[in-house]
């Protein structure tokens, strides 16, 4: 009984570690897009510098997962819980990298007047942050319905990305001089669309964790 209690405590700590990593990633996404919209070099640099912490969190959690597998030899749903954790931190780490890439774009175009106020890209960022939060809530609560919601959220982000693409394409056709900045903003939009895809991946992990069935949500 004591061994099981210790294992349950270790699983609970693992969940908390993953949640903390997710909170840090959410914050990085928000600050990266804010640095882009406000052309804030200092904020962009803080996101780039903070990526190391996300990488460190991933390695720390990965070590804990592997130690649990080696020492507890979990079966069935317990094994799926730990495997899901390993895959979730990989998605979170990639989201952190993409936030870092957005911050690098912000740094690159910080000395240029924006060709237009950014509206849809911050909306995409807000949706992506919500998806990350909901995905992690679904993980902790093992909530399949919330995990399935990722598919609808992802469609909204895809729709906004397509809107940004069309709008910037028109800007470039009308004024070829802004092609460099418009291309950079297109990449930022694409990075947010990929962040939403990673959140959807987490939703798929939750469905598998709870039901043992694989479901494509993208």
Automatic annotation (TrEMBL):
<comment type="similarity">
    <text>Belongs to the PhoU family.</text>
</comment>
<keyword id="KW-0963">Cytoplasm</keyword>
<feature type="domain" description="PhoU">
    <location>
        <begin position="18"/>
        <end position="105"/>
    </location>
</feature>
<dbReference type="InterPro" id="IPR038078">
    <property type="entry name" value="PhoU-like_sf"/>
</dbReference>
<comment type="function">
    <text>Plays a role in the regulation of phosphate uptake.</text>
</comment>
<dbReference type="Pfam" id="PF01895">
    <property type="entry name" value="PhoU"/>
</dbReference>
<dbReference type="InterPro" id="IPR026022">
    <property type="entry name" value="PhoU_dom"/>
</dbReference>
<keyword id="KW-0813">Transport</keyword>
<dbReference type="GO" id="GO:0030643">
    <property type="term" value="P:intracellular phosphate ion homeostasis"/>
</dbReference>
<dbReference type="GO" id="GO:0005737">
    <property type="term" value="C:cytoplasm"/>
</dbReference>
<comment type="subunit">
    <text>Homodimer.</text>
</comment>
<protein>
    <recommendedName>
        <fullName>Phosphate-specific transport system accessory protein PhoU</fullName>
    </recommendedName>
</protein>
<dbReference type="GO" id="GO:0006817">
    <property type="term" value="P:phosphate ion transport"/>
</dbReference>
<keyword id="KW-0592">Phosphate transport</keyword>
<dbReference type="InterPro" id="IPR028366">
    <property type="entry name" value="PhoU"/>
</dbReference>
<feature type="domain" description="PhoU">
    <location>
        <begin position="121"/>
        <end position="206"/>
    </location>
</feature>
<dbReference type="GO" id="GO:0045936">
    <property type="term" value="P:negative regulation of phosphate metabolic process"/>
</dbReference>
